[in-house]
Amino acid sequence: MSAPAPTQDQIAPAAAPVAAETPAVPPAAPAAAPAATNGHSNSAAGGAISDRDVTEWKDRFNHVLAKPSEAIHQRSPAGASAWHESFFGCFSPIDLCCITWCLPCITFGKTHHRLRRDANLEGYEPINTSCLLFCGSSCVGLYWIPLAMQSADIREKYNLEGDCVSDLLKAFCCGCCALVQHEKESAYREPLLASSGGGHKEQYQPSGGMSYPAPAEASAPAPQQ
User: Fold this and answer.
1) For 203, what's the count of Cα atoms within 13 Å in the CB-facing half-sphere?
2) Residue 178 three-state SS
3) Does 2 have pLDDT greater than 70?
4) CA distance 88 to 215
5) CA–CA separation, 221 vs 177, rounded Å?
6) Cβ-contact 47, 125 below 8 angstroms
7) Residue 94 and residue 92: Cα distance in Å, rounded?
8) Nearest residue to 152 via CA among 176, 168, 128
9) What Pfam families has UniProt attached to this entry (predicted)?
């Protein structure tokens, strides 16, 4: 006699398949911070302060303080060109005039970036080191010092006529007119400088003293017969 077939309750449930263990994937490493450009690092405050600009301004001030007489007597070389933009043409264009009147430090920093960083204003930020320098010097009434130094930069780079005394007078008497003239002159000259492959640059020469002609050499006496 055969054994009875097992009922459904007596049948053991099949074992659930064991899920294959997957190796844990380590979290991705954070991306490295981009390296600083232009050979200098910026501060964490949005890159407003550039170490390169700070060092450059500090060296320029130290040079002037070390040799004040030489700085005062600086002048453009003979044969320098006339300025293309008028000192009294500060009302045009009207947008530049209004910005300079309300926020002169913005115009100063923009011109400085075009002169010493990039002619096409690549990487320019309205709030930069030179802008903050001009703003700080204005708070103590010394804005005319960096403004006169910028005028000297323009004369040197584009070989324009003028001297240190006239730079100081223009900056002190009408800083807004000087700022607008600097910005317009640099915007006009930079394309010409680029098209000429670097343009003409001459260093300032201190004004020389009076020169006297060399005495004529005495002729040797004729031999006697």
Assistant:
1) 4
2) helix
3) no
4) 49
5) 67
6) yes
7) 5
8) 168
9) PLAC8
The CA distance from 175 to 169, in Å, is: 9
pLDDT, position 19? 52
Which two structure tokens, joined as six digits, stand for 12? 């053991």
Say how many Å lie between the first and final Cα of the chain, rounded.
173
Task: Give dist(CA 87, CA 166) in Å, integer.
Answer: 12
Write out the two tokens for 96: 């530049």
The conformation of residue 48, written as its DSSP 8-state character, comes to -
Tokens 């264009």: give the residue.
93
What is the per-residue pLDDT across 41-90, written as a single tens digit (0 to 9) for each?
A: 444 344 678 899 999 999 999 999 999 988 899 899 989 999 999 999 99
CA distances from 24 to 43, 74, 92 (A): 39, 72, 67
Q: How far apart are CA 41 and CA 43, in angstroms?
A: 7
Nearest-angstrom CA–CA distance, 140 and 142 = 6
**Which burial class, exposed, middle or buried, applies to 143 when counting CB atoms under 10 A from its CB (0-12, 13-18, 19+)?**
buried
pTM here is 0.68
Q: Encoding tokens for residue 201?
A: 């640059």
Distance between CA atoms of residues 177 and 37, nearest Å? 34
Residue 179 Cα to chain centre, angstroms: 15
Q: In 3D, which of 158, 179, 194, 26 has the Cα closest to residue 108?
A: 179
